[in-house]
Each structure stands twice: as structure tokens, then as C-alpha cells.
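Render this sequence as a predicted structure.
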Amino acid sequence: MPEKIAPEERLLSLTVALMAHRYGLTKEQILSSVSGYREARAEGRSSDALEKMFERDKDALRDLGVPIHTVGDYADPDDLREARYLIPKAEYLLPEDITFTPAEVAVLNVAAAVWGESSMSADASAALRKIRALGIEVDEPIIGFAPRVSARDPAFAPLRQANDQARVVRFTYVKPGDDVPRLRTVEPHALIEFEGRWHVHGIDRDLGQTRTFLLSRIVGDVIVTKDVFDPAVRVGAGERARLGLEDVSAQNVAELRVQDATEAAVRLRRRGTRDGGVLRVRFVDIHVLADELASYGPEVLVEGPPALRAEVIARLRRTLEAHGVSA
């Protein structure tokens, strides 16, 4: 009678097998040759039961932070009949020259706790598990509290999925200054947070040019297509996008007078620099900043630039008109 293999031993065997084969293994190769599945098949387990076992094991390993990649048909990525499964060593193993002190691991614990979004929280926890596997003792928890970061834009989750899988997406987008949204077909090379807002950076296939889109301007659902792009283009994309946004921000500076002890003072002063009684705040999107400044009402006076001042005044006048008050 075949020897029974403990589930944890089967998981270890699966991990080793998927790391050992550069081009991965098909499901049939796994079920017929990897320790744990091979014995279960010899016992007479049905193909359906074995496949369910494999799916559970994949989920368990991914929950532990093991990066299992599924490589399907390039022409039809959703066709997994002959898909190969692999674990890239570069993503699973930490570089040999990277070490952490107990205090550094304690700080990383706090950093992981910052993420309030469930999907990102899971990734942060998985990263910590990988570091703890090095056997480093952790200092006592840092006294205080960790801020919470949440990706509230509905477009964030599907765009992150598409970025992970190197899939092209489609979404309707309202360009600054336009009232009518337009359909965009985009390769999402990177998701970045800048000035407290999330952006997706990549190639607009309709224009054939690199673009950075503000997630809050995406209208409706993001459609993740079967069309794929070269994953290598993602390398360094986030940093390039950040530098581009910083260049735009450096060229656009709002000059504001903000009342003390107000919500506007709390939110704006941490983003700007004071020059006498004037607060200088850099910005990327004049329409987004105008929306924010108008929401503060009399707490903020916009001195410049003139285009920003005009946008804020226009919003305040529309608000008055909506309430039946003539400006």
C-alpha cells in the first residue's frame, strides 16, 4: 500500500518541484510525479479529487507568500489546459546580500500594518512571512500607532490584477477639462501613489504613447482583457512615472492664503511651503486641485496662478447657482 504523505510535506515537495524546473510543470506532470500527488493517484484518487487538492495547495502556498506563476497559451492566456506552473527563484528568494536587524524587522511589521486594503494587506503579510523565515528575532512592537493607507478607487483592484498578469485593460476616462469620457485601451505598467492620489502609468495603445491616468477620473468598470504585453516593460515604470509627475508638479505652484485652525490649514500646509503669509502648494492636475480648494469655501483664498483662481471661482459660482443664489 502506498505510503501516505502529510499535507505539509506535499506542499514542500510542490514548492521544490516548481522552483527546480525553469520552464515550469504542467498539471499532469505535477500530479504524476510530485511526492504527495503521486501517492494519492496510486491509491486510486480520482482526477477531479487530485485537481482539487492541487488547487487548494496552490492557494495555500500563495497565502504563505510563495509566488506561483501560471503560464498559459500566449494567444489565449485564459486557456489553462496545457498551462505550466513555476516559482521564479528571483521572486521567492531574498538576495544573499540583504540582511535585516531585529529593529528593522520591527519597523517592517509597522509598515505592513499601514495597509488597510485587504488585498494589499495580504501582500504585506506575505512579505513579512518571507523575512521571518530567515529566523531573525523581532524587537518588541514599536509603541504608538500606524497610519492606515487604503486604495479606495474602485479601479485599483482590477488594475493591480492586470498589472500583475501583464494584461491590457480598457476603461472610460474623463480627461481634465473634458465633460465626456473616452474609451482608453492601456497597458498598465505601474500603479503609483502621488500627492495622496493613485495613478496608473503605461502605454495608451490608441495613441501609441506613454500616459499616466488618475484613477479617480476613470468612469465605470475596468475591463481586464485577454490581450497581454511584455512583463519586462514593468521594470522601472513606477519610478519613471513618479519622476514625470514630479516634473509636472514642479512647474505648477498654487499660491494660497489659508485661515489658521481650519481643515484647509491641516490638509494643505503639510503639502506646501510657507513664504510669509502665502502657502505655496505644488500640483499636477489643476481641475482636481480646484475641486479641493472650492470645497474649503472661505477657508482658502487663491492668489495664483490666474487659471487656478478662475477654476475655483467657477466652481463656487456653480454652487451658489445650484442653491438659487445669484453671484
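Summary. The chain has four domains: 7-92, 94-150, 156-237, 252-322. The chain has twelve helices and twelve strands.
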